[in-house]
Design a protein that fits this description.
The chain is an alpha+beta fold and about 80 residues long. It is built from three helices and four strands; from the N terminus they run αααββββ. β2 and β3 form a beta hairpin. The longest helix has 17 residues. The radius of gyration is 14 Å and the shape is elongated.
């Protein structure tokens, strides 16, 4: 398990995304708030630690700007027999 994720680890994850240039702002579009994005990554990590029955999670799309980010759709798969 990679959880829980630290603030530094989340920053590294964000900076290594192929779409990082878009996250920073490119092609005349404003970027997203990386502080909030980092917090979302860490909160999802903490949720997975607190609820080990979460087997799979898909948040798509996660849309944002400098003000904040919003999960438009999410799907969570639960496994009942967690050991």
């Amino acid at each position: 398990s990679i959880s829980p994720i630290s603030q530094i680890e989340a920053d590294e994850m964000i900076k290594h995304l192929r779409s990082y240039k878009l996250i920073q702002g490119a092609r005349g579009q404003e970027g997203i708030n990386e502080v909030v994005f980092n917090e979302i990554i860490r909160r999802v990590s903490a949720l997975c630690m607190a609820a080990p029955e979460i087997f799979e999670m898909d948040i798509n799309p996660l849309l944002g700007n400098m003000k904040g980010l919003t999960a438009v759709d999410a799907r969570i798969r639960i496994e009942k027999d967690v050991k």
